[in-house]
Design a protein that fits this description.
With about 60 residues, the protein is α+β, with helices and mostly antiparallel strands. The protein contains three helices and two strands, in the order αββαα. The chain starts with a helix and ends in an 8-residue tail after the last helix.
Length: about 60
């Protein structure tokens, strides 16, 4: 799923052409706009995504 989407409590598809490796982990984004936003604060967005993931992990993308 899109790294910025998860940081915003959403499940969006990831685009394999829009990626970054941070700390040995692969992060995808859905589009260039969300990727630019994600890159503005990578550590903060990763932290938010890690906090959000347990709440959204079992929800289907259509439920957002």
């Amino acid at each position: 799923f899109c790294a910025m989407g998860v940081a915003l409590e959403r499940k969006l598809d990831g685009n394999p052409k829009l990626w970054r490796v941070v700390g040995g982990r692969l992060y995808l984004n859905v589009a260039e706009g969300p990727q630019r936003r994600w890159l503005e604060d990578v550590p903060g967005n990763i932290s938010r995504a890690e906090q959000n993931w347990p709440r959204i992990r079992d929800r289907a993308p259509k439920d957002f």
